[in-house]
Each structure stands twice: as C-alpha cells, then as structure tokens.
Amino acid sequence: MISMTSKDFLELPIADLIISSEKVAHVQLGNNAEHALLVLTKTGYSSIPVLDTQYCLHGLLSMRMITESILGLDHIEFEKLNDIKVDDIMDKKVATLNIHDKFQKALDLVINHAFLCVLDNEEKFVGIMTRRVILKQLKKYIYQISY
Ligand code: AMP
Q1: Is the distance from the beta carbon of residue 63 to the nearest atom of ligand 1 less than 6 Å?
Q2: Average per-residue pLDDT in the chain?
Q3: Closest residue (by CA) to atom 6 of ligand 1?
Q4: Is the CB of 55 under 6 A from ligand 1?
C-alpha cells in the first residue's frame, strides 16, 4: 500500500468528499417557518441551508431558531408559524468552504460546525461537507499510518 504523509493528507482536495447540492435538504428564502419545521422534522437534520432560486446561500436554519421565534411568555405560539419568514430567523453567519479548498481548511472549520457549506468560484452553493465525512477520512488515515 502506498502510504500518505500527513502533508499529503491535509492537502487532499475536498471536492470528492462533498454531498452535492441536489442531495442536500434545504429551504428557500421566503419560505415560512411552518414549511421549514416540516422539512427539518421530516429529514431529521438539526440544521439546513437557506438558498434562493439561483442557489445562492443566505443562511442556516435550525429547529431551535424556529422554536425561539414562536416562544411566548407562557406558551408556544404555534399560530405564528405561518407568518414568520425563514429570512427573519435564520443565522446569516455561515462557515463556508470553496470547492477548491483542501482538507486542512475543512478540518479546522469543522471543529465548531456540524457541517460546512461549499461554494464554487461564482459563490453558488454546490453542497456540504459534514463532520461525519471528515471524521471518516481522518479515521482511514490514522489506521493507514498505524498498521
Ligand atoms: P452528519 O455529520 O452526517 O451527522 O451531519 C451533520 C449535519 O449536517 C446534520 O445534522 C445536518 O444539519 C447536515 N446534513 C447532513 N446531511 C445533510 C443533507 N443531505 N441535507 C441537509 N443537511 C444535511
């Protein structure tokens, strides 16, 4: 087996490791919180990207953001779900990678994020890189240098 140095490993391109945009559950700018709640519940993901019709990334939306937006003083105001737009409750600070980035950048960023959004050179959303995929690669590499 040809063994890889840690430098080679950290310089691996991320492009082959991403989940491509057509397989990523997302909501669209302008969608209401009720729709977003349905998508999050059905997919079981804790957080998903918010895109526009041109596949530009605008933010991330999680179940917690929805719950917080309908939290009244002593009860949850479910009736508000229909009127709240994802645009107003999403987190606009998103950790992103460029499709041409190397594994090291993903490893650095994924410490604080369960997944990273990947953009192309035109800033269009092309997919995500998850912590699971990054850990799997790391495990493969560690096993390869250990035996
Ligand atoms: P994982 O590392 O596979 O557990 O994924 C971590 C997080 O990445 C999930 O909780 C979701 O927020 C997000 N994620 C993973 N796969 C998808 C997908 N296909 N569509 C949307 N979000 C995803």
Answers
A1: no
A2: 95
A3: 114
A4: no
